[in-house]
Amino acid sequence: MKKIITLLLWAIGTQTFAQSFSDGVYSTNFGTINLTFEQGFEYPNGGIVYGDYKGIGTITGSTTNVGKEIVGSFHNGAAEGKFIFFSPTGKQHFFDSGITSFNGNWGYGTDNKYSTNPDHIWKATSKTAGKDAIKNVTNVWSGKWNTTDGSLILLQTGNKVTGTYKNVGTVDGVYNPQTRKLKGTFYNNTTKKTGHFEFDFEGNSFKGKWGWTTAMTDGAWNGDKHVKNNKAIATTSTSSNSSTSANSNQSQNNQKVKYRFHLAKLNAPLIATISNPLLNLYGFSGIRVYRVTASGREEVKSFGNKSHTFFDRTEDNAFPENRESVSLPETPANYRDFEFLSSDINNNTVDIEVEFWHHLKGKRPGINADYGKTRQTLTMEQIISAMSSNGMDRIFIGSSCELGKIKNRDQSYITVQVKKID
Fold it and tell me: What pLDDT does residue 275 have?
């Protein structure tokens, strides 16, 4: 009897368990990826995996080989390819806790499984954040949806979406990120009929309609995401009778917020300063900001249209302090202010990208130290998330930093204070 009860509890857990310990944000040799695992008897191969690929594409697959491998497709915003990831040595499968890195292969016509060609290797080098940091903005339809017409399990590659509904049929559609509409057809295996649907994306829910004709007048089809890991989108009042409310919403959407990016500190590699503490830092650092939509990438000029360069010092004008870091005061020379629309900050179809770069050097007896060039781009959402998890008002940019956080101090980095100002 005890064995029967144990097996029953295991079966229930298998059916209802939605996410795994491996969910999170990973740094790879081809950019950052998010991975969410959903498992259960109703899923293809018993489990699906999905997430954003570098914020511009999708990565979607399923577990195989008893969870020891993930196979699927990625879309880099322009082309589709295939991949396979292998669970780390010593880990039985991807559902184990403590997975922070893994190896894999990729290709366009094939996933090049087991290839040793460096061009075919796709590996995750570190796990930079857990499941709470996942806020999908591109791969928004993948996963299970609980709907008014049974469950939907969808897989998104690029803007193509396929899947099954309540185990009786299939769906096939195309998503338009600009209109936030998923349109397509479904096929009912029982009635042998093809119907049409249209879903309006609302973040972690959708409202839609369906029908046996293109008019789609047979009823509503609404749903909520089982794992709510999509980026929240701004909502506005739907009242059509209140001009005051409409004007208020319009005014709020058009409001501007100003953020200050203050270059607060320059930091030499710790290992370099231990081996030779007598150095004077010099070099340059800069910042650019862009508003990114599906139609293009537009630069946002700093307030007062200041230079992109925070500082630029030659060897002859190196900082006099003989130490591994130099703090810079919050003066106009060391900060740049940028204005954004409030509606853009939480808009699912808009990204505010902030690009930082720096090249630090150290003046010292003999040959000067050269710490190399670094260029990184973070979205405002990633910046705000990094500051929140750090419990600080600043982020860190450098070769040893990931998503605004310090991984180690064996490379140079800069400290940037970020704050909203009036």
Answer: 62
